[in-house]
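ok, trying the design again with the full structure, not the truncated one.
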């Protein structure tokens, strides 16, 4: 995808915007301290499924979604999520949780005790198979969280294949950096690699899932993913979302269809809390653009890590939360939502290791009443799905960053695919009655505001007024 940053002279910058993880405190998220990461740069010839270019992802926290916390109980929410415009369901790990060194009463999703079994807390394998089938019948895609870097302390392999693990000098299993409830696997062992790939095949073959969200993907040697993907894709075309930021791990971008926008998430929070200049965010978007035409990112304002440990999107971004949500759904990539954001979870941090159900207003995860942001997200998700100008990772799409007379406060951009266009204007400030102009020949013609239905002609007049932390989204008519 091409993105043009227009300031004084139009400058073309090649761009493929696409574009979560076990619990890591901010200082702990990063590289391993236990083994060297391979940096094999050879591409595996990835073939991103066509549907991924216009999809969105909704992260499902089964434990907290309903009072029952089961697959069967969650199924009642499928019609509502379909109505909201959700396309892809990402289920946090569905595998059993280790009991040894378990945190809290229920433990971490990310401390697996068996890669080819189902957490009895959520139901049975048959329950999950039925849920996937129901989701597919309704038109959803389904991906599952895959935790390849580590297991819990009493995973079945610790007894049957201790050689699959890294060991400390005293012979004990090596705990993952900063996390004492999990131990790291040894990817120098070819038998471990084969066993891991076989376990992943199990879920494709027995449940029909459509892909994987790979936890801490960059903590596992890149050549493992290069080895695994062709074998898994041979079963069916799969979608691969990796938890890494491609700016820091470009070699992984050659294997995965989409990555995380961690730097954007952290820098937007710093922008809001530390009153940093907006130009820094513009520069970061340019850096993402330089990653190439096939590069995609998942954009988000919340996920299971952020909500539980760092705060809700409103704690992190305040009134900037909604403009950033609009950005996540309209910039080049894949919008990613977390369970309950449609409420929203304004000041509710969900517990990570204990039962803490989402407080749905009608006491039903399937009910629509009282969901303040459901219509907001429906509008954005439907626009992203149905307007080709918002396709991610598509070289046919051009994104113009538009110069305004208030560039210290406004992010404005136009996305075009043939004769389809979407204009987005975001106010990153609390300025009241802010008026400004866009003087750019690429913006012309009749547009309609997707939230209000009001039409505007930008052929000659390109004057705007916007509310504090406001957002305007237009579709060309």
């Amino acid at each position: 995808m091409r993105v043009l940053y227009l300031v004084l002279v139009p400058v073309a910058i090649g761009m493929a915007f696409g574009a979560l993880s076990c619990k890591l405190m901010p200082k702990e998220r990063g590289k391993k301290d236990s083994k060297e990461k391979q940096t094999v740069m050879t591409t595996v010839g990835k073939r991103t499924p066509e549907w991924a270019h216009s999809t969105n992802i909704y992260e499902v926290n089964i434990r907290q979604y309903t009072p029952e916390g089961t697959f069967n109980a969650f199924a009642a929410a499928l019609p509502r999520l379909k109505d909201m415009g959700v396309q892809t369901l990402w289920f946090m790990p569905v595998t059993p949780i280790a009991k040894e060194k378990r945190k809290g009463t229920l433990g971490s999703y990310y401390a697996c005790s068996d890669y080819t079994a189902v957490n009895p807390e959520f139901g049975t394998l048959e329950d999950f198979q039925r849920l996937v089938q129901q989701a597919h019948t309704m038109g959803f895609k389904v991906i599952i969280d895959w935790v390849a870097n580590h297991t819990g302390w009493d995973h079945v392999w610790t007894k049957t294949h201790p050689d699959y693990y890294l060991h400390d000098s005293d012979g004990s299993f090596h705990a993952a950096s900063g996390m004492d409830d999990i131990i790291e696997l040894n990817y120098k062992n070819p038998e471990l690699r084969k066993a891991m790939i076989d376990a992943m095949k199990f879920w494709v073959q027995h449940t029909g899932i459509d892909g994987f969200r790979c936890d801490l993907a960059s903590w596992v040697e890149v050549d493992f993913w290069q080895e695994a993907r062709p074998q898994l894709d041979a079963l069916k075309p799969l979608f691969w979302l990796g938890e890494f930021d491609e700016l820091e791990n470009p070699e992984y971008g050659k294997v995965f269809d989409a990555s995380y926008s961690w730097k954007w998430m952290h820098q937007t929070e710093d922008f809001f809390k530390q009153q940093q200049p907006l130009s820094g965010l513009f520069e970061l978007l340019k850096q993402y653009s330089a990653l190439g035409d096939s590069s995609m990112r998942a954009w988000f304002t919340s996920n299971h890590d952020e909500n539980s440990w760092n705060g809700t999107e409103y704690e992190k971004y305040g009134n900037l939360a909604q403009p950033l949500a609009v950005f996540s759904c309209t910039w080049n990539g894949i919008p990613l939502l977390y369970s309950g954001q449609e409420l929203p979870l304004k000041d509710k941090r969900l517990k990570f290791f204990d039962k803490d159900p989402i407080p749905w207003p009608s006491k039903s995860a399937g009910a629509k009443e009282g969901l303040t942001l459901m219509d907001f997200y429906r509008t954005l998700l439907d626009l992203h799905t149905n307007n080709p100008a918002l396709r991610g990772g598509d070289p046919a799409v051009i994104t113009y960053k538009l110069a305004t007379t208030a560039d210290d406060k406004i992010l404005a951009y136009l996305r075009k695919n043939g004769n389809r266009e979407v204009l987005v204007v975001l106010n990153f400030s609390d300025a009241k009655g802010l008026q400004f102009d866009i003087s750019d020949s690429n913006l012309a013609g009749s547009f309609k505001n997707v939230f209000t239905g009001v039409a505007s002609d930008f052929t000659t007049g390109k004057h705007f007024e916007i509310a504090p932390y406001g957002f305007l989204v237009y579709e060309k008519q």
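Keeping the full-length input from now on. The chain has 13 helices and 21 strands.
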